[in-house]
Amino acid sequence: MAKATFGAGCFWHVEAAFSDVKGVVSTAVGYMGGTMSDPSYEDVCSDETGHAEVVQVEYDPKQVSYSALLDVFWKIHDPTTLNRQGPDEGTQYRSVIFYHDEQQKKEAEKSKEQMQKKFCGKIVTAIMKAGVFYKAEEYHQKYFKKHKNTCF
Questions:
Q1: Does residue 152 form part of some domain?
Q2: Mean pLDDT for the chain overall
Q3: Which CATH number does the domain housing residue 72 bear?
Q4: How many CB atoms lie within 10 A of CB 91?
Q5: Which member of 10, 45, 120, 151 is catalytic?
Q6: Residue 36: inside a domain
Q7: Which residue range is the domain that position 106 belongs to?
């Protein structure tokens, strides 16, 4: 199994998108990229910890490639908006790819370069080395599966 970590706005919809991909074994929402150890949702929402809301994807590379996961990432959000997705605004909603090894870094950079040719605006997606993943509170996990009538 391999891991991939993406930030593309509110982690609820990001998790839902990746959980439907064939070859994805599990997903978890949480926080990465900040300065505070073990932050809470409230801490992250203060916009003072530096964390992004992310989904960590565990996947079987024999069934789905990292490149295919990147394709999903680009399709589910607007990578040209800085610290914002839809009505959600703040650094925790930034567009970011956290890579877990040098191969992922190379693929992410290549993918971003290719996608820039397809977007009118400048892509602001950061590509950063993965750090510690802090799993979000249980009520955030699989949010849409738990709240089937929730619309976004």
A1: no
A2: 94
A3: 3.30.1060.10
A4: 20
A5: 10
A6: yes
A7: 2-146
* Contact assessment for residue 66 and residue 107, using Cβ atoms and an 8 Å cutoff: yes
CA distance 34 to 80: 21
Label residues 28-48 b or e (16+ Cβ within 10 Å = b). Answer: bbbbbbbeeeebebebbeeee
Three-state secondary structure string covering 20-65: CCCCEEEEEEEEECCCCCCCCHHHHHCCCCCCEEEEEEEECCCCCC
Respond yes or no: is residue 45 known to be catalytic. Answer: no
Model confidence pLDDT, tens digit, residues 38-96: 999 999 999 999 999 999 999 999 999 999 999 999 999 999 999 999 889 999 999 99
**Total of domains in the chain:** 1
CA atoms within 13 A on the CB side of 61: 8
Amino acid (one-letter) located at 115: M
Structure-block tokens of residue 103: 């191969």
Q: At what angle do helices 66-75 and 102-116 cross, to 10 degrees?
A: 40
